[in-house]
Amino acid sequence: MKGKLGRKVGGWSARMKVVSAVCGCLLVAAGAYAATNWVVGLNGGSSGEGQSATIANLSITAVASPAAGSLLYPGGTGDVVVTIANTNAYPVTITAVNLPTNTTYANGYTTSALTTTQTGCIATTPSGVAWNFSTAVSGSSHTLTTPLTVGASGAANNPLVVTLSNDATMASTTPAACANTYFSLPAMTGITATGGAATSTTSPATDAWTS
Amino acid sequence: MCRSALLVAVGILAVFSLLASSGEAWGAANWTVHLAASSSGEAHSQAIPAAPVATSACASGKKVTVTWAAITHATNYGVYQSTTTATGTYTLQQTVTVATWTSGTLAAGNYWYEVVANIGTNWASVKSAATAQRTISSTTCA
Q1: N or C end of chain A, less CB within 10 A?
Q2: Measured between CA atoms, how close is B30 to chain A, in angstroms?
Q3: Do both A26 and A85 map to the same domain?
Q4: Which residues in chain A are contacts of B3 at CB distance < 8 A?
Q5: Which residue of chain A has the CA closest to B38?
């Protein structure tokens, strides 16, 4: 004996119709979600996690302008300036960064162009310059004081220039050769970023992680 | 029955539409991805500190006090003394963390002083210009 949902209607059972409707709804909902919310990685990423081919990674690079306001000195901290480019067709918001270990040091260069290394002040000397608040464990996550939103490709505030206040540190044992030197900080190991509708941060911006 | 099926479908659609519009993760925890080696930020270090400008004065008894303007970020200062000439050989007397230093009781003779500012363990300014000569007599400082 067939139940109510088992009755045939026009060649399709009611059960089949319900299943079809549910599947359709799932597809529509998933499409809606995908169209409005993305998760974005960093350029050169190699996390091994699945990622839509339509989502481009972010590029974070060193930049000389604006000049750092707070300069490094032995036993002290200094500003780091970066530029973040987003080639996606929608804004991307960064909420945290992942840092290498606190013994991964920066290379020193003679000019802000970061082309000629400073003799006696390279990562293996070591320079003693590292990311502030980095730990002995690679990949530690550090939340930005204010989330940064990079505008969509071609939109305003993309690339986004950011001064990270006092997010570099210099060891008290840093050699004298590292005075008046420009540093390329070691590569971050990752970021936490999400794509989707958001108001872009005005460039240039100031931000930081403080722990 | 058709109405029931329709209600179920609409309900499910509403739930997922809400998730989508609110940005809540629907199996979408944030991804953390490694950076290319060349991706980085730029920082700049200050120059070696300039030499302090030191002056000296007689303190009570047969002592000399040397003072100088503090240097930004200085960890400490080295005070050097010569007993021959202003351009003679200077020897380190003491390292202090403040911008003043007073000698112990000095023997009769002439004295000159120079000061070095240190930042950390390896950054040192050049020595300051020598202070004016201070002469210790058998009884006082001049």
Answers
A1: N
A2: 6
A3: no
A4: none
A5: A187
Q: Does one domain contain both A31 and A113? A: no
Torsion of CA B83, B89, B91, B95, to 10 degrees: 100
Domain count, chain A: 2
A182 in Cβ contact with A114 (< 8 Å) = yes
Q: Which residues contact A58 (CB under 8 A, 6 or more apart)?
A: A40, A41, A42, A43, A84, A85, A86, A92, A94, A150, A191, A193
Residue of B45, B46, B75 for testing the chain A interface, max A β-carbons within 10 Å: B45
Banded model confidence at residue A30, pLDDT cuts 50, 70, 90: very low
pTM of this prediction exceeds 0.80: no
- Do A1 and A81 belong to one domain? no
A125: exposed, middle or buried (Cβ count in 10 Å: 0-12, 13-18, 19+): middle
The predicted structure's pLDDT at residue A55: 73
- Angle at CA of residue A54, ends A50 and A57, nearest 5°: 70
Which phi and psi (to 5°) does residue B10 adopt? -65, -40
Question: Residue A1 pLDDT more than 60?
Answer: no
CATH, domain range B54-136:
2.60.40.10
Same domain, yes or no, for A86 and A29?
no
Mean pLDDT for A25-31 is 44
